[in-house]
Amino acid sequence: EFWDKEHLFYNNGDTTRRSLAEYRGKLLVLDFWFTGCTRCLLHQREIEYYKQKYKGKLAVIMVNSKNTKDNYAKIENLTKQEYYKKIGIDTLISIIDDEYLFQLFQPNGWPAYCWINSDDLYQLRTFRNLLDRNYSAPFIDIIR
Fold first, then answer.
1. Beta 27-32 vs 122-126: how paired, if at all?
2. pLDDT at 82
3. Measured at the alpha carbon of residue 107, what is the angle toward residues 52 and 142, in degrees to the nearest 5?
4. Beta carbons within 8 Å of 23's beta carbon, 6+ residues apart
5. What is the DSSP string of 71-121?
6. How far is CA 62 from the centre of its chain?
7. 112-116 and 122-126 as β-strands: parallel, antiparallel, unpaired?
8. Using one digit for the tens of pLDDT, what is the confidence trace for 29-46?
9. Is the pLDDT of residue 83 over 90?
10. Phi/psi-derived region of residue 30, left when phi > 0, alpha when psi is between -120 and 50, beta in every other case
11. To the nearest 5 percent, what fractions of the chain are helix, strand and coil?
């Protein structure tokens, strides 16, 4: 069910429903965040660097759950704020209105990163962004 369940994705103002099936067999990081978490947003530039560097092997999916009390309008409003633009994020793609992943992984702080390795096994949960060029990330050894 994990790979086939459909989620509502926000993509720069548009929404679509799709599953996580396209990420199966890759290192998948679920990046739990909410609109009031500045660190969650500040980490996105570093994360984008790693997504490009390991394109096809690493996927990072932002997840915004109902638990945060964020909704489409609140997220849309965030992308129009001046401080958001100063962060330098070009696109915001995230699962929104999530209940399933939140219940499954139960993040109890933000940001929270849940790592599923390329063998589709839940490997690690961190509250520190390991996708940072100033940090020697342990995940690099497991990317095939």
1. unpaired
2. 85
3. 40
4. 59, 61
5. -HHHHHHHTTSHHHHHHT----EEEEEESHHHHHH---SSSEEEEE-TTS-
6. 2
7. antiparallel
8. 999 999 999 999 999 989
9. no
10. beta
11. 30, 30, 40
Secondary structure of residue 66 in the 3-state scheme = helix
Query: What pLDDT is attached to residue 141?
Result: 53
Question: How many other CB atoms are there within 10 angstroms of residue 74's CB atom?
Answer: 15
Would the pLDDT of 136 be above 70? no
Instruction: Read off the tokens for 19.
Output: 């599953």
Cα–Cα distance, 11 to 93 (Å, whole number) = 4
Q: Which residues contact 102 (CB under 8 A, 6 or more apart)?
A: 32, 63, 65, 66, 67
Rounded to two decimals, the pTM is 0.91
In 3D space, the residue among 45, 48, 42, 70 whose CA is nearest the CA of residue 60 turns out to be 48
Q: Is 47 helix (H, G, I), strand (E, B) or coil?
A: helix
